[in-house]
């Protein structure tokens, strides 16, 4: 499905810490139907297609247009007639500042208008009328930068624990992390959840699932993926995949959203992400 899609990414020097962006343009606007796959970041999906754009459906609730997707939204499908779309991925500590709170960071799916109010429409219109993807990336970076400056600040300890969780592929012990930052387990659990929207255990599960999902997409058998990702066995992997996506490991392996990650997110902060061959060519950069 990506053969008719141009993908644009910012140049490395323009990227902000904890933030990734990619632009998507269908050469000929066409209907899409994609099962979104959970990953360890909050997604701002900004619809630049006009009135007949994105429609999203999660747990029987539907919405239209630009949307904020939490880290683990469950079963979520994006459909509609899409021409252009800007996707912004925010690490959870950054997301808490950009969104104004940790609410929605974990699992909710909300319209961008519900989160940013009237600013959402103004930002969409500016992005829609920009002359190039580079101009759009610059606009979006400015919006995000200003919101980070005015938003919530995450404890350095919580940020350190998140980085350690990601670097380990989700294979960390909560007690050990608490010792690293000099917090009690109770304080770690409370502060991490309050500021990042998930418990340390849930964060580790999501990072581990993300690592496994990309190994599945790379073509590894589920049994090998389970062993390499730190699951007890293949049924354990199957249960986590089902819990995060509503899909089987086989369906996740074929998920179209994963098929473009090597192009859309070339400098992903994921630990141990496999590199696949045969990725689609990128568009404007």
Automatic annotation (TrEMBL):
Signal sequence segment: none
Domain spans labelled HTH araC/xylS-type: 156-255
Annotated keywords: DNA-binding, Transcription, Transcription regulation
InterPro entries on file: AraC_XylS_family_regulators, Homeodomain-like_sf, HTH_AraC
Domain of life: Bacteria
Keyword Transcription: yes
Name of the protein this chain belongs to: Helix-turn-helix domain-containing protein
Origin species: Streptomyces monticola
